[in-house]
Amino acid sequence: MSRRRRPSRTGGVLVWKPVGPSSREALDRAERAIGAGALGHTGTLDPLAEGLLLLLGGEARKFQALLTDHDKSYRARVSFGVVSASDDAEGPLHTPVPRGELPDRATIERALDRFRGGYAQVPPGHSAIHIGGERAWAKARRGETVELPPRDVQIRRIELLEVDEGDEPQGVEHCSLEVDCGPGTYIRSLARDLGDALGCGAHLSGLVRHRLGGLDEEGALPLGDVGPGTWQELEELLAGLPRLEVGAEQEARLALGQRVPHPLPPEEHPGAEPRVIWCEGRVVGIGEMRGSVIQPRRWLPKS
Question: What is the distance between the alpha carbons of residues 90 and 78, in angstroms, rounded to a whole number?
């Protein structure tokens, strides 16, 4: 008979996931090391990727979707002339026949222009997206054909950092990219689509996520260093996200589900996207602007 996992205390920890474990395996390892109960995370990293993984516990999990929906930054390594069934180095890999000509740096630079801004991206067949109640990757690994509909993604910035032309001057075999993107973007799909645009095929051969919302790699702990003393307060984790400041009277009304007027003049009202609500130096909930009023969305209980 299974035992219920006890709830964790509110807060979290920003870890640096190494190449190898899945996000779920990294989370399980951190749960055991911290001993604070059940945790959640804010965005999957594939086993072959490394980088920031924010783990949340207790009431902090109410902010999981808000943190997942923010922009992320990656350093990606793209390999040309070899394609992958999974769109990354997990494979299976194969060389297209006939093999397309490898691009030079200038050609890659021109091809990147079509991805700057927004474009309709087809997610990888080997992804965690649900199809009929089952993960797409499970179907793909059984050899089933997986067709996912395209969805609009935003590439805020994409820059070519380095190129590797290999031993012979036959074109670029690998390149490194810096990518700032909106939520829901698959860098594996971006590598695949870049290879298709160049006519030679490509796959993602390395990935590092170094920014997650308002958090960056400087504040991250190696997964092996995580323990009971590394737990962070909610206010520290959310300090970099868009916020709204309210007074104690407004906070009391918002906690009851009531709308309250925004304290700033109309010309200074922020946009309608969800924001962290702060009161007297502490995080109290999530709200959004509806015209000139604040609408509470999720609220923390009184401590």
Answer: 13
Q: Tell me the C-alpha distance between 174 and 163, whole Å.
A: 6
Contact of 262 with 275, CB cutoff 8 Å: no
Q: What CATH fold (topology level) applies to the domain 72-212?
A: Pseudouridine synthase (3.30.2350)
In single-letter form, the type of residue at position 22 comes to: S
Q: pTM here? A: 0.86
Over residues 67-87, the pLDDT tens digits come to: 887 889 999 999 999 999 899
Are residues 74 and 32 in contact, defined by beta-carbon separation less than 8 angstroms? Answer: no
What pLDDT was estimated at residue 192? 97
Write out the two tokens for 203.
């796959």
Q: Out of 28, 46, 88, 225, which one is annotated catalytic?
A: 46
Catalytic residue check, 46: yes
CATH 3.30.2350.10 is held by the domain 11-70+213-238 = yes
Tell which residue, 205, 175, 174, has the closest CA to residue 188: 205
Domain extents for the chain? Answer: 11-70+213-238, 72-212, 243-299
For residue 104, give every residue at least 6 positions away whose Cβ sits within 8 Å of its Cβ, in sequence order, or none.
171, 172
Residue 293's CB is within 10 A of a number of other CB atoms, namely 14
